[in-house]
């Protein structure tokens, strides 16, 4: 088994699912600090279930999840909130918050019982606003924002939570190509500059190949994991979709529709 | 971080408005007492007529304090429910807590004579009515709490609460159908709601219950703010869902149940005041909202009670009717003007 010393996240023999229904099993991978990792796979293969399991929202079926060398289930909800932050597909329940207020909620794990923001909290919030180009929008209400802007706000909130691991469930859905690239570039910068480990599910396989340090392919069998170029060489993307519809071109790293 | 100073000014203005509403409330009533005499009575000097002193100290002051407690407590319970269920329609009535109180009161006023044949009400003081209503609301609260432990989904809990509400009101209807006209009338008068007729001890007891509810709410400020993002996000921010949901539900039960027991089921305040407050303060931060809804609730209740007390006449309109007649148009006007539900 892999060494867990330097790994932020270490997954071995993991089975995920709901009760008696196994969605995917035998998932193995390790992620070090500062790595951007995409999780790809067809609809219903278990991408979101994996993310929900890693985020502690549902129990694993079997196997090990080690976060900073400690089993995930050993964390209390308050100590976990300092190690792991999430960006979910669900919209925030109230959009009557301003951008700054929403990002400030990311500091909750560190504030006192009344939620008073310290100088350090305010610096973190400012850093998140800067990193995701939200300074101009700081006093706008969330219901006034476009989808792309709101997504940036939600990621900025996760950054303000200042955790070693950030999980994002489909952060690029509903966005146009420009904004997809924008958000992924920002995630890449966050991972590389701040040494955050970032794991996100996506359907943008071509973008993930270009931007990610690691990719996990959920294929229902052995779930290959590795460097995108390696995975291309090993022809793992070729069988991702039924080949009569789309074919993967290893030279360009893109999919072509069969005419 | 945004403008805590602007909030400070708003709070000073609100506190002044509360004071004015309080003075207005005390100065109006069936017996007209000159304003200067009223002020001097409040400061301890005896007025021209001894009866005025008696009226102010024994009737009007307790009534004014009850109004403030009722308005502040019901508004706060409405705010808690709306945030917990992330539903702008939620109010103290949704968990069936108020219906539970009604059932308790109905059982005492109509059921006792029905089942035992007792027709004499000599043993039924106002205290026993309050106790019956409290037991009713806390029984329903207890059932809701047990269900809340098992049901993870807050929306399901909301619907279950509504179902309990229907069951209890159905039972009340059945009781009403079989009860005598005299008993029915007593129950209907209780259901009109009233902020008068409470003894000092009753007010102190209700004040204690409300204070406990406020304390629990203040302890929940952080989780209330986290709930604005949704339960999953709240959990990822370190909120223990079970514990904070329980605390918030108990706080609501204490506030809504305790007040309904003493003052009857007063409609509308719990639903409307949080909306009014959010429209005017334009924030979702519960550190600001909790004191703001309490002040607004107190002011609204004092004004409604002043209106209910028809000037210079002995008749008092049901407070329940006034709160709805005054408050509902205000909320409609605010929503139409802003065209948006602020939540």
From TrEMBL, chain A:
Ranges in coiled-coil conformation: none
UniProt KW keywords: ATP-binding, Nucleotide-binding, Transport
A Gene Ontology molecular function term of the record: ATP binding
Pfam families attached to this UniProt entry: ABC_tran
SUPFAM superfamilies associated with the record: P-loop containing nucleoside triphosphate hydrolases
Protein's UniProt name: ABC transporter ATP-binding protein
Oxidoreductase as UniProt keyword: no
Leader sequence segment: none
Domain of life, source organism: Bacteria
Domain ABC transporter: 9-244
InterPro entries noted in UniProt: AAA+_ATPase, ABC_transporter-like_ATP-bd, Metal_Ion_Import_ABC, P-loop_NTPase
UniProtKB/TrEMBL annotation, chain B:
Transmembrane segments: 64-81, 93-115, 127-148, 155-178, 184-200, 207-228, 248-276, 288-310, 316-336
Main subcellular location of this protein, as a coarse class: membrane
Topology in the lipid bilayer: Multi-pass membrane protein
Keywords: Cell membrane, Membrane, Transmembrane, Transmembrane helix, Transport
Coiled coil: none
Cross-referenced Pfam families: FecCD
Compartments (UniProt record): Cell membrane
Family per record: Belongs to the binding-protein-dependent transport system permease family. FecCD subfamily.
PANTHER family according to UniProt: FERRIC ENTEROBACTIN TRANSPORT SYSTEM PERMEASE PROTEIN, TRANSPORT SYSTEM PERMEASE PROTEIN
Name this protein carries in UniProt: Iron ABC transporter permease
């Amino acid at each position: 088994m892999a060494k867990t010393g330097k790994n932020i996240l270490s997954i071995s023999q993991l089975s995920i699912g709901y009760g008696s229904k196994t969605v995917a099993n035998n998932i193995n991978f390790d992620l070090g600090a500062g790595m951007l990792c995409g999780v790809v796979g067809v609809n219903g293969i278990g991408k979101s279930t994996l993310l929900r399991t890693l985020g502690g929202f549902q129990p694993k079926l079997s196997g090990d999840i080690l976060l900073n060398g400690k089993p995930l289930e050993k964390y209390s909800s308050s100590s976990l909130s300092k190690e792991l932050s999430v960006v979910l597909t669900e919209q925030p329940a109230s959009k009557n918050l301003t951008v700054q207020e929403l990002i400030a909620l990311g500091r909750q794990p560190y504030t006192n019982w009344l939620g008073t923001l310290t100088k350090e909290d305010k610096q973190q919030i400012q850093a998140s606003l800067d990193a995701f180009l939200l300074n101009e929008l700081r006093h706008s209400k969330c219901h006034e924002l476009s989808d792309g802007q709101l997504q940036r706000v939600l990621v900025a909130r996760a950054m303000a939570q200042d955790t070693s691991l950030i999980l994002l469930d489909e952060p690029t859905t509903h966005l146009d190509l420009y904004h997809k690239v924008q958000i992924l570039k920002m995630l890449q910068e966050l991972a590389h500059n701040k040494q955050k480990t970032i794991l996100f599910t996506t359907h943008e396989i071509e973008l993930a190949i270009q931007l990610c340090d690691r990719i996990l392919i959920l294929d229902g069998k052995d779930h290959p994991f590795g460097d995108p170029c390696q995975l291309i060489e090993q022809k793992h993307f070729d069988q991702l979709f039924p080949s009569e519809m789309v074919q993967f071109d290893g030279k360009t790293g893109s999919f072509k529709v069969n005419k | 971080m945004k403008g805590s100073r602007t909030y400070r000014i708003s709070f000073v203005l609100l506190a002044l408005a509360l004071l004015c509403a309080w003075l207005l409330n005390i100065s109006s009533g069936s017996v007209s007492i000159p304003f200067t005499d009223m002020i001097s009575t409040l400061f301890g000097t005896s007025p021209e007529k001894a009866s005025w002193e008696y009226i102010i100290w024994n009737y009007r002051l307790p009534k004014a304090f009850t109004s403030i407690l009722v308005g502040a407590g019901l508004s706060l319970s409405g705010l808690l429910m709306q945030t917990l269920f992330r539903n702008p329609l939620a109010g103290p009535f949704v968990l069936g807590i108020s219906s539970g109180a009604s059932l308790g009161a109905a059982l005492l006023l109509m059921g006792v004579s029905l089942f035992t044949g007792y027709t004499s009400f000599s043993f039924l003081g106002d205290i026993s009515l309050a106790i019956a209503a409290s037991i009713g609301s806390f029984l329903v609260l207890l059932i809701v709490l047990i269900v809340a432990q098992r049901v993870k989904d807050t929306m399901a809990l909301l619907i279950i609460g509504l179902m309990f509400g229907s069951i209890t009101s159905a039972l009340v209807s059945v009781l009403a159908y079989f009860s005598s006209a005299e008993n029915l009338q007593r129950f209907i008068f209780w259901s009109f709601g009233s902020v008068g007729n409470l003894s000092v001890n009753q007010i102190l007891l209700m004040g204690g219950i409300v204070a406990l509810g406020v304390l629990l709410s203040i302890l929940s400020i952080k989780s209330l703010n986290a709930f604005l993002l949704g339960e999953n996000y709240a959990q990822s921010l370190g909120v223990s869902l079970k514990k904070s949901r329980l605390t918030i539900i108990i706080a609501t039960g204490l506030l809504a149940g305790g007040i309904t027991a003493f003052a009857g089921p007063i409609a509308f305040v719990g639903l409307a005041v949080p909306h009014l407050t959010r429209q005017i303060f334009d924030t979702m931060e519960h550190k600001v909202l909790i004191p703001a809804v309490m002040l607004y609730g107190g002011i609204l209740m004092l004004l409604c009670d002043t209106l209910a007390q028809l000037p210079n006449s002995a008749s008092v309109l049901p407070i329940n009717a006034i709160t709805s007649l005054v408050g509902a148009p205000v909320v409609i006007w605010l929503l139409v003007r802003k065209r948006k539900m602020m939540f």
